[in-house]
What we know:
With 165 residues, the chain is α+β, with helices and mostly antiparallel strands. The chain has one domain: minor pseudopilin epsh domain (minor pseudopilin epsh fold). Helices cover 27% and strands 28% of the residues. The chain has one helix spanning 2-45, and strands at residues 49-54, 79-84, 89-94, 99-106, 113-115, 128-134, 144-148, 154-158. The strands form two sheets. A four-stranded antiparallel β-sheet has the order 3-2-1-5, covered by helices on one side. Strands 4-6-7-8 form a four-stranded antiparallel β-sheet, with helices on one face. Strand 2 and strand 3 form a beta hairpin. The longest helix has 44 residues, at 2-45. It is elongated and about 65 Å long.
Amino acid sequence: xxxxxxxxxxxAPNFSAMLQRQAVASNVESFLADLKLxxxxxxxxxVPVELCPVDSPVTTPPTCMSEADAGAEDWAxxxxxxxxxxGTVIKRHQIGMGVGRIxxxxxxxxxxxxxxxxxxxxxxGFGSDLLITARDSSQTAAQQITCVNTTGRARxxxxxxxxxx
Length: 165
């Protein structure tokens, strides 16, 4: 019995780290899917579609956070949504447990991803870093950065803090 307790005590920290890595990875995958969805819907509907942070994705109707509210340190504290220019909410995403912070480092000062009907992100020279970290800040191995270019193409770098790492 005591051997099982010792083994459990040794495995618990690793299990916690694994859960945090999984939470970060899950939210990164959701973000990438929603980024693709926003681009596809802009092309399909023929109107601009935006992926933006929201204070609360469960409120009705959710609204995009203003640029003043969506700070770089905590871009999407609660989640994000995909919404078209007509105000139709296409999808909402609530951030899951285990994610500590989603910070945003846009090259142009934009705080959201607005796709034009031709599938390009609005804003000249747009490029951004979206850093998703674990709730436990000591888990740097769990953090992932999503680098998005003008066409909306994204790439993910695990364990990095900027797109140039």
